[in-house]
């Protein structure tokens, strides 16, 4: 059988993270290794406390691991994130990483447009004008750009957060439960946009979700259990993922 090799956008090996000591010790990551293929949509599922958010934060350079390696491939070079200083990590995040939070994390005093352009105002890459306009148009935000977050619905706020993560064409977009606060219609919209970011804009997306329907939008779903990768499911269906999650919780 012919094998095609997919380029990894992020390659993490033997990640270990421990909190506390003695009887209170918690191990969110236990020598966990994972590869995130470039230009694809990867979902991460697992029971509560299995280490999903910790893993996402470590892969995105928002948190550090005690041991292991996280290599980010961006613009033809590989950068090891573990061991970088806080300042170096901040620069890496600004240049190469987009992050979408469950709680949107928009700046309340800024308009939608100012929020979307915030990473470049802070020294990140200047978005390409044509691409910026295409993203705004695709996300249906053209007539919302002068609004502040409190004037927008939850779904619209999350679309602004998606636009903020997309416009600088980061090497990887991470999303931590991006639909966790949304109703089913807004959830479907946001998931459709993440799917389009991969299919139409060639982006790499990694999303943590509890929701089998959301994770089924991905090209593959990695299931975590107790700080380790239990299984990777290619082209998952919601039914299969729901069944796997019952297994992972036992
Ligand atoms: N700052 C911290 N201090 C101590 N323990 C922590 C800290 N952050 C996470 N943990 C613990 O690490 C484990 C993994 O947490 P993590 O948030 O990564 O899990 P999760 O799979 O994302 O869970 P959930 O689905 O409930 O959000 C949990 O037992 C959690 O209580």
From TrEMBL:
Matching InterPro entries: AAA+_ATPase (IPR003593), ABC_transporter-like_ATP-bd (IPR003439), ABC_transporter-like_CS (IPR017871), ABC_transpr_LolD-like (IPR015854), MacB-like_ATP-bd (IPR017911), P-loop_NTPase (IPR027417)
Domain of life: Bacteria
Pfam families with a match to the protein in the record: ABC_tran (PF00005)
Residue span, ABC transporter domain: 10-245
Keywords: ATP-binding, Nucleotide-binding, Transport
GO CC, alphabetical: membrane protein complex; plasma membrane
One GO molecular-function entry: ATP binding
PANTHER family linked to this entry: ABC TRANSPORTER RELATED, IMPORT ATP-BINDING PROTEIN
Official protein name in the record: ATP-binding cassette domain-containing protein
Provenance organism: Nesterenkonia alkaliphila
């Amino acid at each position: 059988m012919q094998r095609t090799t997919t380029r990894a956008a992020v390659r993490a090996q033997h990640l270990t993270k421990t909190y506390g000591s003695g009887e209170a010790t918690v191990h969110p990551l236990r020598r966990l290794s994972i590869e995130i293929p470039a230009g694809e949509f990867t979902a991460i599922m697992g029971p509560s406390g299995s280490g999903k958010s910790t893993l996402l934060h470590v892969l995105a350079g928002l948190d550090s691991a005690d041991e292991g390696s996280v290599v980010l491939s961006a613009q033809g070079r590989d950068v090891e994130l573990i061991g970088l200083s806080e300042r170096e990590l901040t620069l890496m995040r600004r240049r190469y990483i987009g992050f979408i939070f469950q709680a949107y994390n928009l700046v309340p005093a800024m308009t939608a447009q100012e929020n979307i352009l915030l990473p470049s105002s802070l020294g990140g890459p200047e978005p390409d004008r044509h691409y910026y306009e295409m993203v705004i148009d695709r996300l249906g935000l053209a007539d919302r750009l002068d609004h502040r977050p409190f004037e927008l619905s939850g779904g619209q706020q999350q679309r602004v957060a998606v636009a903020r993560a997309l416009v600088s064409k980061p090497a990887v977009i991470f999303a931590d439960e991006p639909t966790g606060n949304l109703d089913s219609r807004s959830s479907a919209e946001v998931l459709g946009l993440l799917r389009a970011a991969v299919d139409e804009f060639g982006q790499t997306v990694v999303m943590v979700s509890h929701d089998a329907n959301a994770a089924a939008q991905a090209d593959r779903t990695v299931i975590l259990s107790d700080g380790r990768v239990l299984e990777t499911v290619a082209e998952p269906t919601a039914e299969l993922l729901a069944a796997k999650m019952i297994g992972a919780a036992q």
